[in-house]
C-alpha cells in the first residue's frame, strides 16, 4: 500500500472515529435531557464521572498508560474550567431545546478567538473578526427573541462555551505536552469531587429542593436509572478513547471540522426525542453559528500552534 493510500485510510479512520464520538456525545446529552427529572445535577455528574473514571483506570492499566500529569496545577485548572462547563451546560438542558443549547455552546471557537487576543496577545485577524460578528448574529437568530421572550437559561450554554474556551487556552499554552489520558483522568476526578461537593453542600445546608434537577440532593434511583448512568459512563469512556484515536489518525483541522457534526445530531435527537423542530429563523441562526465556528477554528494562528481542541477532546 502506498503512503498516499495509507494516509487516506488513516484520515478516513479518524473521521469515522470523531463522527462516532460526536454521535455518542449528542446521544448522551439527549439522554440527560430526557431523564433529567430522575436525577439531580450533582448526583448525575458524580456517578457518571465515577463510572467513567474507573473504566479509564482499567483502560490505562491494560495499556500501560500513566495517569499522573506532568504539570498538575495547570491540568487541574483546566479541569476546573471544564467542570464549570459541564455544570452550566447540563443545568440548561432540561430548560431549553437541545439544538438551541448546542448552537449556543458551539460559539466556543469565537470565545477562543477573543481570549487568544486578550490572554495570549494573538492578533484576531480579519477572518476571525468576521466570524465573531457572524456568530453573534447567529446566536441572536437562534434565540429568536421575536417569537417569544428568550429563556434566561439560554445564558448557561453561552457561559459553558466561555469556560470551555478558557480551558482550550490553558491547554494550548500550558498543557500541550500532557498525555490525553492523564488530562481525562484528572477531569473525571475533578467532576467527582465537584458533583459530590454539590450534593454534600445541599444536604448539609438544607438548601436542597425535592424534584429539582439543579438543587436536588439525591433522588431515589430505580434499576433503569442506574442502567442509564452506567450507559452514560460507558459512553464517556468510549468517547474519550475514540477522540484520542481520531487525533492520532487525522490532522486536527479535519477532526475539528467533523466535530461540528454534533450540531446536526443534536437537532436530529431534538426532533426524535422531544418533537422540537427549529423554526426557519432558528435554523438560519444555527447555520451562521456553525459557519462562524468553522471559520474561527480554521483561521491561521499567529503564535500558538498545536491541535484545535473540541468539546469531546475536553473529556
Features:
mainly alpha, 315 residues
What does this structure look like?
- By secondary structure, the chain is mainly alpha-helical.
- It has one domain (3-314).
- Helix content is 73%, strand content 0%.
- It has helices at 3-35, 41-63, 72-92, 98-105, 108-119, 125-143, 155-174, 180-205, 223-249, 252-259, 261-274, 280-298.
- Helix 1 packs parallel to helix 11 (261-274), helix 2 (41-63) crosses helix 9 and helix 4 (98-105) runs parallel beside helix 12 (280-298).
- The chain starts with a helix and ends in a 17-residue tail after the last helix.
- Residues 302-309 have low confidence and may be disordered.
Map the helices and strands.
Blueprint: H1 3-35, H2 41-63, H3 72-92, H4 98-105, H5 108-119, H6 125-143, H7 155-174, H8 180-205, H9 223-249, H10 252-259, H11 261-274, H12 280-298
Helix pairs in contact: 1-9, 1-10, 1-11, 2-8, 2-9, 3-7, 3-8, 4-7, 4-11, 4-12, 5-6, 5-7, 5-12, 6-12
Amino acid at each position: 500500500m502506498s503512503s498516499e493510500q495509507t494516509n487516506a485510510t488513516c484520515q478516513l479512520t479518524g473521521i469515522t472515529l470523531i463522527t462516532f464520538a460526536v454521535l455518542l456525545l449528542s446521544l448522551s446529552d439527549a439522554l440527560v435531557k430526557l431523564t433529567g427529572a430522575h436525577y439531580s445535577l450533582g448526583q448525575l455528574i458524580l456517578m457518571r464521572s465515577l463510572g467513567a473514571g474507573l473504566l479509564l483506570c482499567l483502560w490505562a492499566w491494560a495499556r500501560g498508560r500513566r495517569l499522573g500529569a506532568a504539570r498538575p496545577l495547570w491540568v487541574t485548572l483546566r479541569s476546573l474550567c471544564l467542570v464549570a462547563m459541564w455544570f452550566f451546560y447540563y443545568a440548561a438542558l432540561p430548560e431549553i431545546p437541545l439544538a438551541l443549547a448546542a448552537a449556543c455552546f458551539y460559539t466556543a471557537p469565537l470565545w477562543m478567538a477573543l481570549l487568544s487576543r486578550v490572554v495570549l496577545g494573538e492578533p484576531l485577524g480579519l477572518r476571525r473578526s468576521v466570524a465573531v460578528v457572524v456568530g453573534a448574529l447567529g446566536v441572536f437568530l437562534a434565540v429568536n427573541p421575536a417569537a417569544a421572550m428568550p429563556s434566561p437559561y439560554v445564558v448557561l450554554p453561552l457561559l459553558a462555551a466561555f469556560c470551555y474556551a478558557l480551558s482550550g487556552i490553558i491547554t494550548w499554552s500550558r498543557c500541550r505536552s500532557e498525555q490525553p489520558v492523564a488530562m481525562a483522568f484528572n477531569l473525571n476526578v475533578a467532576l467527582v469531587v465537584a458533583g459530590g461537593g454539590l450534593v454534600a453542600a445541599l444536604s448539609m445546608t438544607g438548601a436542597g429542593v425535592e424534584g429539582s434537577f439543579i438543587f436536588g440532593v439525591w433522588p431515589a434511583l430505580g434499576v433503569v436509572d442506574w442502567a442509564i448512568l452506567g450507559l452514560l459512563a460507558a459512553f464517556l469512556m468510549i468517547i474519550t478513547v475514540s477522540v484520542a484515536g481520531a487525533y492520532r489518525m487525522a490532522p486536527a483541522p479535519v477532526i475539528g471540522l467533523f466535530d461540528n457534526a454534533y450540531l446536526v445530531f443534536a437537532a436530529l435527537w431534538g426532533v426524535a426525542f422531544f418533537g422540537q423542530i427549529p423554526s426557519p429563523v432558528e435554523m438560519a441562526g444555527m447555520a451562521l453559528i456553525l459557519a462562524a465556528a468553522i471559520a474561527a477554528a480554521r483561521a491561521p494562528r499567529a503564535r500558538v500552534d498545536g491541535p484545535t481542541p473540541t468539546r469531546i477532546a475536553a473529556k
